[in-house]
Structure formats: C-alpha cells, structure tokens
Amino acid sequence: MSSHSVSRFHTVRIASLAWPILIGQLSVIANSVVDTMMVSRFSVVDLGALAVGASIYISVFVGLNGVLQSLSPTIGQLYGAQKFKAIGAEAKQGVWLAVFLSCFGCLLLLFPQPLLWLAKASPELSEKTIHYLRMLAIALPASLCFVVYSALNNALARPKMVMAIHVTGLLLKIPLNALFIFGGLGLPAMGGPGCGLATAIIAWLAITTGWLILRHHAFYEFLGLFGTGFVKPQWQSLKELLRIGLPIGLGFFIEVTSFTFIAIFVARLGETVVASHQIVANFSTLLYMIPLSIASATGALTAQAIGAQDHPLAKRVAFSGVRFAVLVSASIGVLVWFARFSIVRAYTPDDPVINMAVPLFIFIALYQSFDAMQVVVSYILRAYKVVLFPTLMYALALWCIGLGGGITLGLNPFDLNVPKLLTGAGGFWFSNSISLVILACGMVWYLRRIQKAAVRAEEHTTERTD
C-alpha cells in the first residue's frame, strides 16, 4: 500500500470517529443556548442569574472534567495492549475519582457566596444564582460520571452511543425547561433555577442510560465491568490518574480563563466593543469544536497504537490527524473570511456592532490552522501520557503572550503607536492569534522529540530482547 493510501486510510478512520464526537459536543453547547433563549423570555434578573451561575459552573466543571480526561489515554493504551480486564479496573477507579471530585465541586456550587460577593451581585440576583447552582450541584456527580462513560467509549473508538445520549438530552431539554422555567402540570414557575433542575434530571438520565448500556450490551462483557463485587478505591491507580489528569485540568482552566479575562478587560471599552467581541468569541467557539473532535479521535487511535507498541503506526496516525485538522480548518478559515458579513448579520442587526465585529474575523480566518494544529498535537501528546509540557505551553502562550499582549495593545496603557486594527478588541484577538502560532509550533517541536524518543526506546527494547 502506498504512503498516500495509508494516510488516506488513517484519515478516514479519524473522520469516522470525529463526526459523532462533533455532534455530541455541539449538542452540549446547544443546551446553554436553549437555556439562554428560554430564560431570557422569563425575566432579566433570571437571565443575569443564569449568566453568573453558568460562568461559575463552567469554571468548576471544565477543570474537574479535565482531570478525568486522564482516563482516555490510559484506557486507549490498555486497549491497544489488549489488557482488557485492566480497562474495566481503570474505569471503576475513574468512577471513584469522579465521586471524589464531585464532593469538592459540590461544595463550591452549594456555597458560592464568596464568588457572588466578588461579583457584587444584588441580593435578588444572588438568591436566584444560589438556587440555580444548587440545582447544578445535583447534576454534577452524574455529569462527571458520564465523563467516565464518554472517555471509555471514545478510547474504545465507540463514540456513537455517547452522541446519541447527548442528542437525546438536548431534545429533552426544551420541554423540561418549559415545564420548570414557566411552570405547568401543577408545578410553580421557577425561572432560571428551573433550567438547572432540567439539567440535573437529564444528567442523571444520561448516566443511568450509560450504565444500562454497559451492563447489558454484549460488546462490553470482555472488560469485566460487572460481576466482580464491590471494588474499593485503589490509591495507586487514583494517584496515576491524578498525575496525568491534574495538568490536563489545569490546561483546560488556562484555556477557559484566558478567554474569560479577555471578556473582562474588553468590557472596559464599552458596550459596542463587548458586543462585537462576544460575537467573534461565540462563533470561534463553535468552529473550535471541529478540530477538537478530530483531536479526540486522533488521540484515541494514537493511544491504541502506543499500547500495541507500534510506534511507527502511532506516528502515522498522528500525522494523518494533524494534516486532516489543518486542511479542514484552513478551508473553514477561507469560507469564514468571505462569509464574514453574513455571519455577523446573523448575530445582530446593529450597524455599529457589525462594523466593529467584521474586521475581527480576519484573525479567526488566519489562526484556524494553527489552532487546529495545537489542539490535535496536545491530544496526541496526552496519548503518550505527556501532559506537563503542554500545560506550561498553554500558560506561556495564552496567559503571558495572548492575554498580556492583548492588554498591551488593546488597552494600550503605555501609549504605544498602535495601528487602529490592533486597538481595542482587535489587540486582544491579534495577540491571541500570535499566541496560537507560537503554541502550535512549540507543540509540534515537542511531539517530534517524544516520537523520536519512543522509537529509540522501542529499538533498544528489541535489541535487548534479541
């Protein structure tokens, strides 16, 4: 088989795994869109409580979710090595880790008063936010346990059932939101906290469905998930998961907070600037789901190859994933640039906001390939269980260069002679683009080192065996 045919074969494998992951991720994002649209029709106070509460919940969930992502490379490598019973054992320890993380997360959600004090929220807004977060505290244990189910299936290259559960949850969200937000069937109107209750119900239905599938589907029997009796926490296993997961969780936190702080600083520049920034940020988040899904699929297949001790195959899969993501994202960047006016007008009819948002789309168009490259390479490095260097790169690039450069150009505290395009929100987006270029180059350089070291280690092991 020619090298071109081999690359195309791996690209098709990656694409077949990536599209269900993408649909599942878009379904999760759509939940927050549905919440915002429906609560906005109830009251302004409830919408404000939703915004504050959702920002707190996302910060908590994203970090804890990142810690649990250590399961994907661990299970992927075990699957490649055909250590199937060990996969079941790791999944059970993943559930214990999700339970322990839930205890910590629920404390933050049940007692958010210090965070609300920092936000200087009004008493009415604070009360609504507290009720909303308490509903989400009910959802958190189920949501984190579902991360374990999702990580298991993605690592085994079976993401379609996860997608189906996410899509079903989205379809249930609309009627449950309507019932709990506006009241009905004898239930009072709850406003914003009502969509939190709907989220909790769907989260528990999702994890129950996942458990039933694992329990009764014949495919999972070889993992030995059931019939082994009660399994206690294995601290050595949990320690290894945390060793990998904590840097990943910190990396997720850095990504989220870098954009959060950009929004906070841009808010100083006026409502029109904030609105234009929000449009660009929201659209870029949707686009990011595409390379993210490719990254997840590439990481899963790479981990399986590493577990099988086939490092040349791991390298070929990784290359195919990076090339596929870059080509797709570059094409999207071109389309975004030519469709930028239509995209912004779909968000808002306000001419001042349109005039300010449209020029910012040049940054989205230009950095797509580098953003795709860095996220795919970061998942490939996780497949090798290399997590510290990517986290340090995220901190350097996104916080120091992206955020620091954005403050220097966008807010211009040093009275520099900055071109108009790079002032205001443009300064933040330019700096963010530069940070992604540096991040992508640094990730690729380090991945090449890791791959060469893995091949040398395999050759050394082969020589010793001979």
Compile the SSE list and pairings.
Layout: H1 3-39, H2 44-68, H3 71-80, H4 84-110, H5 113-119, H6 123-155, H7 160-182, H8 192-216, H9 235-266, H10 271-307, H11 311-338, H12 340-347, H13 351-357, H14 361-383, H15 388-411, H16 425-465
Helix pairs in contact: 1-7, 1-10, 1-11, 2-4, 2-6, 2-9, 3-4, 3-6, 3-10, 4-6, 6-8, 7-8, 9-15, 10-11, 10-13, 10-14, 11-14, 14-16, 15-16
Give an account of the 3D structure.
- The chain has helices spanning 3-39, 44-68, 71-80, 84-110, 113-119, 123-155, 160-182, 192-216, 235-266, 271-307, 311-338, 340-347, 351-357, 361-383, 388-411, 425-465.
- It has 466 residues and is mainly α.
- It folds into 2 domains: 1-233, no CATH class; 270-466, no CATH class.
- The longest helix has 41 residues, at 425-465.
- It starts with a helix and ends with a helix.
- Supply the number of helical segments: 16
User: What is the total number of structural domains?
Assistant: 2
Q: How confident overall, as mean pLDDT? A: 86
* Approximate helicity band: over 70%
Rg, nearest Å: 23 Å
Percent in strands: under 5%
* Major sheet attributes: none
Q: Give the overall shape, derived from the CA principal axes.
A: globular
Given helix and strand content, the structural type is mainly alpha
Distance between the amino and carboxyl termini: 29 Å
Q: What pattern of helices and strands is seen along the backbone?
A: HHHHHHHHHHHHHHHH
Number of strands: 0
* Sequence stretches where pLDDT stays below 50 over 5 or more residues: none
